[in-house]
Design goal:
single chain; about 220 residues; alpha+beta; Arc Repressor Mutant, subunit A; CBS-domain; about 40% helix; elongated; binds adenosine-5'-diphosphate
Length: about 220
């Protein structure tokens, strides 16, 4: 995936089309004091990106898409399965103490709670652990299952969802990460969710940094 940087000339072309549409390539060229041939690549690119629409015999019109919509479009095209990292999960019987040790050892902020069959039961975050610590609970004895946010209140995503959908869920639920799950229906017809990874603010931020640092492979 590459990012696209628009040249000054392309920005000017868009401005001209917005103002004078429909306008032929010849007239765009005149306004820029350039030849039509010089503009051919720019116009082809802007048309391919659906910023401009080429109407035969009429000229170019502006589609209404902004340059910034590409960031959103790109985020909608990247799937959770291509960005996810591995999830750290423990059984609900695990003591709060052992879960905290796991949190440090695995260097994560959120721990998922799963059944022996690896189905999602809940989630525990740093704040949950702090709450139990200041609440004077016996963290060596109390199982992590007692303090988790449990299903069906756990927000999750599927591997085929976009990272845009994942980011929306993270924002709407005010959380740091989401388990990535695969849905399985048991013999009683009940949906169960196997944990196959996680997607966090860090994964999404990394993707943004990648966008920012990649060089465009489209030469302008
Ligand atoms: P932190 O505790 O580090 O601020 P979060 O903001 O992710 O981490 O967690 C805040 C609360 O939301 C906690 O009570 C946690 O159990 C809950 N939580 C965390 N992740 C999820 C999730 N995917 N779905 C529902 N609740 C969650």
């Amino acid at each position: 995936m590459s990012t696209i940087e628009f040249s000054h000339r392309q920005t000017k072309i868009i401005e001209i089309v917005k103002r004078y549409q429909p306008i032929t390539s010849e007239n765009i060229a005149k306004k820029l004091n350039l030849t039509r041939a010089t503009l051919r690549t720019d116009l082809a690119l802007l048309t391919m990106l659906e910023i401009l629409i080429a109407k035969p015999k009429v000229g170019y019109i502006y589609s209404g898409k902004s340059l910034f919509s590409f960031i959103g479009d790109s985020m909608k095209k990247i799937k959770v399965k291509d960005v996810k990292s591995s999830a750290v999960a423990v059984l609900e019987e695990t003591s709060i103490y052992d879960a905290i040790v796991t949190l440090f050892l695995e260097d994560v902020g959120t721990i998922f709670i799963q059944s022996k069959e690896q189905f999602l039961l809940g989630v525990v975050s740093r704040k949950d652990f702090l709450k139990s610590a200041i609440g004077n609970q016996d963290i060596h004895r109390i199982p992590v299952g007692m303090i988790m946010t449990r299903m069906p209140n756990v927000a999750f995503v599927y591997p085929e969802d976009s990272i845009y959908d994942a980011a929306l869920k993270i924002i709407n639920h005010e959380i740091d990460s989401l388990p990535v799950v695969q849905e399985l229906i048991n013999e009683k017809g009940k949906a169960q969710y196997k944990i196959i990874g996680k997607i966090s603010k860090t994964n999404i931020t990394k993707k943004f940094v990648q966008f920012g640092s990649e060089k465009s492979d489209i030469k302008l």
